[in-house]
Amino acid sequence: MQAPVLLLIAFLGATQAFYIPGIAPVEFSKDDHVEVKAVKLTSVKTQLPYEYYSMPFCTPEKGFEYKAENLGEILKGDRIVNTPYVLKAGRDEKCRKLCEVPLQPEQATMLTDRIHNKYTVHLMADNLPVATKFKMLGTGETQYELGYRLGYELKDKAQLFVHNHLKFIVSYNLDEHQMYRIVGFEVEPSSIKASQVSFDRSSGVDRCVFKEEAGSRLEPQQVTNTLDKVVYTYEVVWRPSKVPWSSRWDIYLTMQDFQIHWFSIINSIVIIFFLAGVVTMIMVRTLRRDIAKYNRDDDLEETLEETGWKLVHGDVFRPPRRARLLIALLGSGVQLFMMFLSTICLAALGMLSPASRGSLMTAATFFYVFSGLVSGYFSARMYKTMKGVQWKSAALLTGLLLPAIVLGTGFFINFFVWAKASSGAVPFGTMVALLALWLCVSVPLVMAGSFFGFRKQPYEHPVRTNQIPRAVPDQKWYSNVLISILITGILPFGAVFIELFFILTAIWEKQFYYLFGFLLAVFIILIISCAQISVVMTYFQLCSEDYHWWWRSFIISGGCAFYVLVYSIFYFVTKLSLTDFVSVILYFGYSMLMVIVFWIFTGTVGFYASYWFVRRIYGAIKID
């Protein structure tokens, strides 16, 4: 039954990936003013976003008007502000002068540096990002790129040119009341040297008059350290379109190949069936035979000599060492599970669309904070089951451990980003707000959940624990934890690595990720595969008379995080070409946080699967 359900989830997510519910279309009357807003400047070579007006662009006459942003937008480095571009609904605008910006030497140097680092300018109109259309080499297929390049570089001549002329192409359709709805926003950037254009004010505005000769192209505007000014111009073309308003995000969301996602799902299902076969063989054949033998009184002595997992029944539920640390990790894992499940399900239903900027990150943050109640409950009850008594310190460690690592690392990285004057630096007020959410909401909720969880009865164990621990015999070389991680971690990672590639691409190459139906299917596959591999390894461990399964089940099932780390390094080497030391710190800092989160989450899944398995098998046999 697993495969049809997962395929159904993936299909629903794929079909709903382009539906943006809950956002009513904005309609414009003829000649209504359509605001063009600037979001930020980004580069895949530096990973450091900057505010739009950190560059010498034309400024609006009425001054800067920054949009109030949510938590997700701030964390992403968005700083949405108005621009001087004038777009009137349904009215074409021939080439006109926007402004003439004098350049100081340091501004010319900065412009040169950012063009060399391939910075992209992100604008939007009616909440729709501007896109640049281009054709794929070889296939001639039309593709779109978010934003437009600040300029371009001729490598053979080592020359840099700035895009100082923009041709906006606004696609629209009309409703029954002849109101305009914007369904597309494209730009064609070009570079025009100041000496190649003059301006005619006879119409009341500065219209462009190009000085191109017959059969020749306009000379582009080269950027040098001695460039004294840049002349910015633009034009607007309105085109009718048959694209419905509900599908206007399609060009951004079809940047990913669906066939690869389907291949990922099928590949993951094959892995699940393989693991399910192994688990079935253990549960149905081996365990059923062993339990049947154990439950025969006359074969008891012979059975005890043949196998080992029943021999440790008096120690299998002996509380582990460093129980509080394990409980803190398990509580954090439960909190992450609740956050992932809630966010992905909500996104798969189409409620966290890219049109709602920053909503995904904002929702994930609040889901994590308010999942502290569930985290505290389950961690405290498990702590009581492990015969722990200091529940307050265990609860405090649960509430502080993972957020302290995440916020501490983020604060450390933030120092370097601040030094670069990047908009990616989290403002001080936002840092205070995050600390307040953590210390004033999340931690108290974990403490409250722990209070109620510790008042509950501990989980019942089917066998008693002996007072004197049994000696663990020498283990085989392949039972080593590191070797087990290398062997078992590859299977869950193989189920998710294709989706991981698209997630990394969305994060580091500034693309939209919106195939949350596929992600939900892969999320379920990851949970199942981690649970299955943990059960298998715990069974083998108990058969070798090693009853220290508590920590081992957590560490081994979280072993796929090691492969996530390796893949992150591989992705850095093969896909990115970061040129700045701060960018490298940024990448590896956040990659390490991703690996830690992945390890805690998958480890928690494996631990609870093993705990259920151990209780089940020892509850099925007779113990004298």
UniProtKB/TrEMBL annotation:
It is found in: Golgi apparatus; Membrane. InterPro entries: EMP70 (IPR004240), MFS_trans_sf (IPR036259). It is a multi-pass membrane protein. Keywords: Golgi apparatus, Membrane, Signal, Transmembrane, Transmembrane helix. Its main location: Golgi. PANTHER family: TRANSMEMBRANE 9 SUPERFAMILY MEMBER 4, TRANSMEMBRANE 9 SUPERFAMILY PROTEIN. This is Transmembrane 9 superfamily member.
